């Protein structure tokens, strides 16, 4: 059995990617890229030194053909460049802090061209969606969006109709001023990162926690490991809980282990993840203070969660590092399953176990295993190194622990949310107003002095054209030519309506009569015998329908249903006011309904009830290009 080529795991849905290209990527060497790599890391180190990332820190790797670095970053570029990816998880601030860092890099290294995208695609353009040219969409922006010298660039179609990556990079290096986005687009994107790096410091939260001495020692030397501890606690499963129940690594003395008070720095998102979940202490964990001691209990409970998260993370990574079950192993297993390597065998069967053992041996022999094993074991090795040296509780007893930061922001997020929603609403209103003004100007040019006139008959015609329009799979569509006269065959319409409303027997008879000459081959004598019976059935059915209709009309007379519709007699003024009572009774019994008038009246009532706000009537008629007059009752 041949194994499929190993591949990297698919990136998580909450990941941001970036690729940095030098001005002349084809001439770049390992030395130049290494030098550039160090310069970039030095330029951003003042911002990242004390920052606690949610999952992984900002990183860059060197990619050189013909052996580009295999990683989860789907840049798939054969050009020499630097690239990286960062999983931000539940902490969107990590993503926008990364955007800020890349803008900072592009400003300090103006000759670099940077690509930036996430699992949703070109997410920067989403922020500026109301200001982009109409032709910009996910299908037309491949190899067009770049960050250079602190500006967003969109390669215009007029310059490069179908650019390759190399074409775009050459264009940027020679005429980057022609591809800069407009000021509104640049401003909309910069507004998202204008508060950084201060916002990054604001997103940090320091809190007091009572943890075992071993955990305190690890966090003292490697504060960034708190992110892995929180991740281990927040993403725990049944297997991980087995490690937390024993606490073999961080609670060697069991309940006799001493708890020390330390200040732990983490992101606000991590603090919220720890705080929102209830968790019972394992039996081996030292006893927590009573709940009446509110502050001490809160500190000890938070320390319990950090300790269990650290233990679960340590044991899982130690196991996965030894067994080679990291991210690349998962991708390797997926490729085996897709290729039919296991032949549909049940997991656990002897033949399945034999194939699994062969796959594991092959995987361990590849470089992917050693690389992934080192990555998974790195925190484990570092923790073992720290705890290998002697440590004592005296290191923490004499130090002053600052009080915890206020967590009022946990309960006042509604204000920030409403503020963000209001900003979006204003942006949408300005966008709608801009397009309405354009539409009014165009309509005024088309209609001249009659631009402000409102013709109800046009509304009815447009609505009928809209209903008759055959829409595509994308949904309902407005007719393209709105001024074209609607072709409506009233006779054919009523004929079809009669065929639908007729009884099943009548429809069946009509179908037989129409198709007897071509589809059916009856004997003439059979037809002659059935003529009289068919006529009798028709008479009986007509009599029944008429009687049923009359009975239904009589029942509806006392109701208010007829008054809810506008009849023809209410529209056309009566010339002869001296009609008899008999004629009035006949009009009352049969008053034809004007469909067009009722349609327009219903739309006007719906539009009026919206009170100037968006609604179904204004949305539908706006799609058809109809501008309703203002309600005359307003302001009276």
Automatic annotation (TrEMBL):
Residues of the region (Disordered) are: 431-456, 505-541
Q: Which domain of life is it from?
A: Eukaryota
Bias-annotated ranges (Acidic residues): 520-541
> Do you know which InterPro entries this protein is assigned to?
Ecd (IPR010770)
What name does the UniProt record give this protein?
A: Protein ecdysoneless homolog
Record-level GO cellular component terms: nucleus
């Amino acid at each position: 059995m041949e194994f499929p080529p190993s591949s990297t795991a698919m990136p998580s849905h909450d990941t941001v990617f970036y690729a940095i290209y030098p001005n002349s990527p084809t001439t770049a060497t390992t030395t130049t890229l290494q030098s550039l790599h160090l310069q970039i890391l030095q330029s951003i180190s003042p911002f990242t030194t004390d920052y606690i990332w949610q999952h992984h820190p900002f990183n860059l790797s060197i990619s050189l053909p013909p052996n580009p670095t295999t990683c989860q970053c789907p840049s798939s570029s054969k050009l020499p460049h630097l690239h990286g990816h960062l999983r931000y998880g539940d902490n969107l601030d990590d993503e926008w802090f990364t955007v800020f860092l890349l803008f900072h890099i592009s400003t300090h290294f103006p000759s670099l061209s940077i690509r930036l995208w996430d699992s949703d695609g070109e997410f920067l353009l989403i922020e500026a969606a109301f200001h982009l040219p109409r032709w910009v969409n996910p299908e037309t922006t491949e190899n067009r969006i770049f960050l250079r010298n602190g500006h967003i660039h969109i390669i215009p179609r007029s310059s490069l109709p179908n650019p390759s990556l190399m074409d775009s990079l050459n264009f940027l290096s020679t005429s980057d001023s022609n591809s800069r986005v407009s000021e509104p687009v640049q401003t909309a994107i910069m507004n998202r990162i204008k508060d950084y790096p201060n916002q990054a410091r604001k997103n940090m939260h320091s809190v007091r926690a009572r943890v075992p001495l071993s955990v305190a020692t690890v966090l003292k030397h490697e504060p960034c490991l708190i992110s892995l501890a929180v991740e281990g606690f927040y993403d725990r499963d049944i297997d991980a809980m087995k490690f937390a129940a024993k606490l073999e690594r961080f609670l060697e003395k069991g309940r006799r282990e001493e708890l020390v008070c330390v200040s732990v720095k983490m992101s606000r998102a991590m603090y919220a993840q720890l705080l929102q979940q209830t968790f019972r202490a394992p039996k081996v964990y030292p006893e927590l203070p009573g709940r009446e001691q509110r502050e001490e209990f809160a500190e000890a409970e938070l320390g319990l969660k950090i300790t269990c998260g650290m233990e679960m993370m340590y044991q899982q990574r130690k196991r996965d590092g030894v067994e080679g079950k990291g991210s690349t192993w998962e991708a390797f297993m997926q490729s085996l399953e897709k290729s039919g390597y296991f032949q549909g065998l049940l997991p656990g069967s002897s033949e399945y176990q034999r194939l699994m053992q062969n796959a594991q041996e092959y995987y361990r022999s590849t470089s992917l295993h050693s690389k992934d094993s080192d990555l998974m074991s790195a925190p484990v090795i570092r923790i073992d190194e720290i705890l290998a040296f002697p440590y004592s509780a005296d290191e923490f007893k004499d130090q002053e622990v600052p009080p915890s930061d206020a967590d009022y922001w946990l309960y006042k997020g509604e204000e920030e949310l409403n503020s963000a929603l209001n900003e979006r609403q204003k942006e949408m209103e300005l966008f709608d107003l801009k397009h309405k003004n354009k539409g009014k100007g165009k309509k005024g040019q088309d209609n001249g002095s009659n631009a402000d006139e409102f013709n109800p008959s046009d509304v009815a015609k447009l609505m009928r054209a809209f209903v008759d329009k055959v829409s595509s799979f994308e949904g309902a569509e407005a007719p393209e030519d709105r001024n074209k006269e609607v072709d409506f065959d009233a006779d054919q319409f009523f004929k079809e309506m009669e065929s639908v409303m007729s009884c099943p027997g009548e429809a069946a008879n009509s179908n037989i009569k129409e198709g007897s000459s071509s589809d059916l081959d009856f004997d003439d004598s059979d037809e002659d015998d059935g003529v009289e019976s068919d006529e009798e059935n028709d008479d009986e059915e007509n009599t029944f329908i008429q009687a049923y209709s009359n009975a239904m009309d009589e029942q509806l007379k006392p109701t208010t249903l007829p008054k809810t519709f506008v009849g023809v007699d209410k529209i056309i003024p009566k010339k002869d006011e001296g009609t008899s009572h008999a004629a009035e009774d006949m009009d009352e019994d049969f008053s034809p309904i004007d469909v067009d008038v009722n349609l327009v009246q219903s739309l006007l009532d719906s539009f009026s009830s919206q009170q100037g706000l968006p609604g179904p009537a204004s949305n539908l008629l706006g799609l058809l290009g109809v501008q309703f007059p203002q309600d005359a009752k307003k302001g009276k």
